Amino acid sequence: MPPSLPDDLLEEIFLRLPPVEPACLVHASLISKLWLGRLSSPRFSGRYREFHGPAPILGFVPTTKLGSPVPGDHRVDWDYATCDCRHGRLLLGSLFEQPNRLDVWDPMTGCRRELHAPEEYLNYGYGAAVLCTMSGCDHRACHAGPFRVVFVGLVINDDGERVAHACVSLPESGDCSKPCFDSHFDEWSEPSFGLHLPGQTFIEPMPPILVEGAPHFRLAYDDDDHGVGILRIWECMVA
Q: Which PANTHER family did the record assign (predicted)?
């Protein structure tokens, strides 16, 4: 039997397998337990990302109703909507179930964590975002780390104005590196001071945009006098 190649030389070869053909890495990992351990190590993953840059897009996530159930969720009649998709996680919301349910799902590991949105802010639409809370993170492989969910909803006051309130889930830092189907976390911060908006305002049912660490939600109006607005959640709310 010919001598095996040194580990360092094997790693250099593996580094040069093209990321546009991910099957190459899968096939290599099936050769032996030694190769599988080398390819699945955090050190190799970090070097591979540095060598090739960001990973290619693996697929698309619809921003409307999802047609297939989330693995581990046995309620097949639940209608999903994609609230946000960021840092390797999907934030899913229920369209009709009350109290309104949110799920943070990692498609790579199968880990799913459930929480309920604050019921008092669900009357006129809502927006939600999922954010990594690791300090200084480059967001290349943080999908199994701690995260928070930002929620913003509207209420109507006695003067007929709609008032926006935002709250943030307490940091969730459980182990998300393996499947977990029945994990719940329902603790929210105190809501922010209300922002008064015109009476016909509602939050567009679309994923927010993250700019300088702050999620931005799109607002629309039942009349045409105001056009389109942007609601920004301050960085201090999600720090």
A: F-BOX DOMAIN-CONTAINING PROTEIN, OS07G0120400 PROTEIN
Query: Per the structure block, which two tokens stand in for 42?
Result: 């955090």
| Backbone phi, psi, residue 105, to 5° | -125, 130
SS3 201: strand
Residue 91 CB neighbour total at 10 angstroms: 24
Return the axis-axis angle of helices 7-15 and 42-52, rounded to nearest 10°.
40
- Measured from the Cβ of residue 86, the count of other Cβ atoms closer than 10 Å reads 18
Mapping DSSP to helix (H, G, I), strand (E, B) and coil, where does residue 196 land? strand
Please give the biggest Cα pair distance in the chain. 85
Tokens of 177: 């590196």
CB 104 within 8 A of CB 112: yes
Q: Where are the alpha helices (DSSP H) in the chain?
A: 7-15, 23-29, 33-39, 42-52, 235-238
Could you list the pLDDT tens digit for every one of the 239 residues in the chain? 345 677 788 888 888 888 767 678 888 888 888 888 888 887 888 888 788 765 554 454 554 555 545 555 655 556 677 888 888 788 888 755 555 778 888 877 778 888 888 877 776 678 899 988 877 777 666 767 788 899 998 888 888 788 898 988 886 655 665 666 556 666 788 888 788 887 788 888 888 988 888 899 998 887 666 567 888 887 545 54
Enter the DSSP assignment of 223: S
Give counts: helices (H), strands (E), the chain. 5, 14
Helix (H) or strand (E) holding 221: strand 214-221
Report the C-alpha gap between 61 and 156 in whole angstroms: 33
